[in-house]
Amino acid sequence: xxxxxxxxxxxxxxxxxxxxxxxxxxxxxxxxxxxxxxxxxxxxxxxxxxxxxxxxxxxxxxxxxxxxxxxxxxxxxxxxxxxxxxxxxxxxxxxxxxxxxxxxxxxxxxxxxxxxxxxxxxxxxxxxxxxxxxxxxxxxxxxxxxxxxxxxxxxxxxxxxxxxxxxxxxxxxxxxxxxxxxxxxxxxxxxxxxxxxxxxxxxxxxxxxxxxxxxxxxxxxxxxxxxxxxxxxxxxxxxxxxxxxxxxxxxxxxxxxxxxxxxxxxxxxxxxx
Length: 273
What we know:
Layout: H1 10-13, E1 21-24, H2 27-47, E2 52-56, H3 63-74, E3 81-85, E4 87-90, H4 105-112, E5 128-129, H5 138-146, E6 151-154, H6 173-176, E7 182-185, H7 188-199, E8 209-212, H8 215-219, E9 223-228, H9 233-242, E10 260-265, H10 266-269
Parallel strand pairs: 1-10, 2-3, 2-6, 3-5, 6-9, 9-10
Antiparallel strand pairs: 4-8, 7-8
Helix pairs in contact: 2-3
Organism: Mobilisporobacter senegalensis
GO molecular function: glucosamine-6-phosphate deaminase activity
Protein name: Glucosamine-6-phosphate deaminase
């Protein structure tokens, strides 16, 4: 049976969501807004001489050109900023794929973010964190040491995953929320969708494994900001905002977080005729 919320028009969608929803003109507006929130938080924390800690995605990525421009244009120091990236693909040995691999998130951040920021502004290498399959306890311990995550940025997968926290039907919502950084097998639907976006549909070339920060680290961030920008996000946004809390659709477990929102475009808000 098709859930009624999948058919909600824009007015119905915005009427009573369980996660606050923000409709913006287009994808560029979403990315600009995400970049500005990153910069504003860094400037606020810098003014207090405090550390800024973000959980950051590689998908969405449209915010990074705006972020880099703002940082360089306004000479914003990142010396007291930590970027904890959400995840990375692994090879069949469950080791990081090579940084030069087209799909490598580590390579993406080096090429498109860190190397484009003025050297005198960019944070040190040790503050550019990726989950390590050989040391999965490092990120939870680091977050505790740093005093928590200020903002977790991210997107939502077609099956409701945030980072690579894939659905686990056998767990209760409470059990799922306890999951921390770990290695796991990527769901088939995730591999299929990502292969279309990243490899022209070459499903067999997609990695089968990943390492990801846990939903626990994300859910405990002081703020959570999610962006949706693909055609199929029409259904995802509606299920995130109106579906029942369940490990079947992990983003639903973030309903009730004290400071969360999902930003998406008018295109996503309005269903096809």
